[in-house]
Amino acid sequence: MAPKDRLQAPQAYRGFARLFAWLDNPQAPNAVFFTLALICALLGALDFVLERHATFPFEKVKVFYGFLGFVVCIFIVQAARLLRLLVKRNERYYD
Amino acid sequence: MIDALPAVGVPPALFLIVGGLLLPLFPGLLRALLLILLPLFTLAQILSVPFGAYGLATAFGHELVFFRLDALSFTFAVAFHIAMLLSAVYALHVRDPIEQAASLIYPGATIGAVLAGDLLSAFIFIEIMAVGSALLIWVARTEEAYRAAIRYLAIHVFAGSLFLVGVIIHENATGSLAFDVMRAGTTPGDVLILVALGIKAAFPLLHNWVQDTYPKSTVSGTLVLSFFTTKFAVYALARSFPGTEALIAVGVVMTAFPVFFAVIENDLRRVLCYSLNNQVGFMVAAIGVGTPLALNGAAGYALTNIVFEGLLFMAVGAVLFRTGTAKGTDLGGLWRSMPLTTLLCIVGALSISGMPLFSGFVAKGMILTAVAEEGHRVAFLMLLGASAGVLHHAGIKIPYFAFFAHDSGKRVAEAPAHMLAAMIAAAAICIAIGVSPSLLYAVLPYPVDYTAYTYDHVITQSQLVIFAVLAFAVLMRAGLYPPEQRAVHLDTDWLYRRLLPQLVSAIASDFAAAGQRANAVFARQTERFVAALYRHHGPSGILARSWPTGSMVLWVTLMLAGTLLAIYLFA
User: Fold this and answer.
1) Taking CB atoms and an 8 Å limit, are A40 and B385 in contact across chains?
2) Which of B358, B469, B480 is nearest to A39 (CA)?
3) In contact, B54 and B16? CB cutoff 8 Å
4) How far is CA B431 from CA B57, B344, B359, in A?
5) Contact (CB, 8 A) for B272 and B312
6) Phi, psi of B56, deg, nearest 5
7) Cβ pairs A/B, distance under 8 A
């Protein structure tokens, strides 16, 4: 793992790279995470405030779509780890 | 305008295919320009010609229609032209005349197949597609690419044969060659056609040729390949089998299983190929539902998918072009060197995830709404889950592992200008359709009665997307996310890349061994026969011994006496 890249000072970032330059800040991952969590909380809160039209009964659950996205994501990743155990082979397998 | 175009009734595919065949005769820069000009011409043709049947011919007592423009074929023809133009600009760096020729012939044949009004002309174009695309795989000119091209050709020529046999049976049963709605199961011919299209659409278990062959082409070749064959199959399914309930289940399965493979896959272009399977699954499921909204959704999703998945392929291709690799293990931190590519990749990722304000949201919303309206509860849930899955392997994984994640230390130049131009154009289309969906509705086959930006649609899709991103972040922080690893992952291609060759060589060696044993037995028997002959007739054998004269006289006398007796008794 390469250590945090300090070779490029902010003013050396080319053009559009300045958009992403804040990623080099050591606090960046935490900032991203907490912003995400905040947005999720807000979106979830909206479900308690505003009425949402539901075609199916299960959609009526508060924050249904949020939970679905979260749970399915976790499930997919963990199931993929199991799949990897089954199907992973050496890179040169077919050669 | 129509009268000004003398070539109005000529099938556009003819210009593109003939142009492709003649292309190697032109010098370098002109070739690249023709790759842009020819599709522009045929696009103008399609936009100005009124709906109808042109390019008629008669064969086998049937009328062949080589150029049939109606609402459905119009949508797909426009989508394919967008694809051709984007890839032509993206591939301006290509100097290989064969790749450039194939980049006209293959898309041209696909457009021909989409515009075909009867099954026979469709078949002709399908075969040209197969050859053109196999060529496009081969142009990488590596050993791997060569073998992959052969496998690809075998599979697609087989699919083409199934198609032809199906067409013949269909014609026998119905007396018509028209490329129109068929009820699957009406004749065995229809089932065969469905299977052939299933191979081309990459149905489950028939899907692996996509991941096996597409990534083995060149940077620009893979892009061109990704657009056409699968979306043509979607068109053909929409044309011939709309409302076939079985397709809903098939589509749902198609959206589900590639996601797992995509999560563990290391080569980002293979990830995008699994993503292609998943996306086509949405279209197939929508075709299965069959209502006008669903078919609009399928066609609209095909068009928008061409643009945003193309954008993702372009971004990963640009990374491959600059760094020499597309493997997640070897990439990361490229936002420093390729910030614009990163940004454009993110636009594609947001679009494929169905984020509001991007084109994917509009089209996917139509499909989901159509499925829900028809009451398909399970399918609806599964498609929602698959949407979260898409976000994961395409929306997050591709940009994250290519451009962010750990710093790979690679410092390269930004993508070349022409690639950036193509990507910016694609991103612009994604945002334009996202912000103003009527741009998309204008080209859809059926009248659109759908509102994309309702509070329900926006809040539900936003929740789905943002919470899924949160899940990714949580897994990462908890160290529970599987790291990228160098590996090959077995899929159904194992059956014909490992099992089949092993079986064939095992059977062959068994036959060889059996043959050798049979030979050995035969040789031994012959030896024994010769030895016996030698024993009896050889120098020491009974029959070769010299007999004394006296006993010979005795035997002759006895024989004469016997003969006399026999004559006296029986004569």
Assistant:
1) no
2) B469
3) no
4) 43, 11, 6
5) yes
6) -85, 150
7) 180
CA nearest neighbour of B378 among A8, A52, A58, A43: A58
* CA pseudo-torsion sign B236, B241, B242, B245: negative
What 3-state class would DSSP assign to B69?
strand
Are B295 and B238 a contacting pair, CB within 8 Å? yes
Amino acid B327 reads K
Tokens for B151, please give them. 């496998």
The C-alpha torsion from B71 through B77 and B82 to B83, rounded to 10°, is: 140
> Distance (Å, rounded) from C-alpha B314 to C-alpha B221?
11
Chain A residues with CB-CB distance to B463 below 8 A: 43-44, 47, 63, 65-66, 69
| Contact across the interface for A70 and B333, Cβ inside 8 Å | no
Q: How far is Cα A5 from Cα B368, in angstroms, rounded to an integer?
A: 44
Which residue type does A5 have? Answer: D
pLDDT of residue B90: 96
Locate all alpha helices (DSSP H) within B202-291, ordered by sequence: 209-213, 219-240, 246-264, 268-289
**C-alpha closest to that of B119 among B75, B77, B175, B78:** B175
- Please give the span between the terminal C-alpha atoms of chain A, in angstroms, as a whole number: 29
Q: Are B299 and B72 in contact (CB under 8 A)?
A: yes
On whether ipTM exceeds 0.85, the answer is yes
Which of B388, B409, B489 faces A88 most closely, judged by CB atoms? B489
Whole-angstrom Cα Rg for chain B: 33
**Distance from C-alpha of B230 to C-alpha of B206, rounded to nearest angstrom:** 12
CA distances for B114 relative to B87, B108, B233, angstroms: 19, 10, 9
Nearest residue on chain B to A30, alpha-carbon basis: B477
Q: Shortest CA distance to B219 belongs to which of B292, B320, B310, B294?
A: B320
Instruction: Render pLDDT for B171-229 as a digit per residue (tens, 0 to 9).
Output: 888 888 889 888 766 788 899 999 999 999 999 999 999 999 999 999 999 999 999 99
Q: pLDDT per residue over A49-60, tens digit each?
A: 888 888 888 888
| CA gap B70, B5 in Å, rounded | 19
Give the side-chain half-sphere CA count within 13 A for B296. 25
What 8-state DSSP symbol labels residue B416? P
DSSP secondary structure of B350-392:
HHHHT-TTSHHHHHHHHHHHHHHHTT-HHHHHHHHHHHHHHII
Q: Which residue has 């929740």 as its token pair?
A: B463
> B347 CB near a chain A CB, below 8 Å?
no
| Inter-axis angle of helices B417-435 and B71-90, nearest 10 | 150
Chain B touched by A61 (CB under 8 Å) = no
pTM: 0.88
Flag whether residue A52 sits within 8 Å of chain B, measured between CB atoms: yes
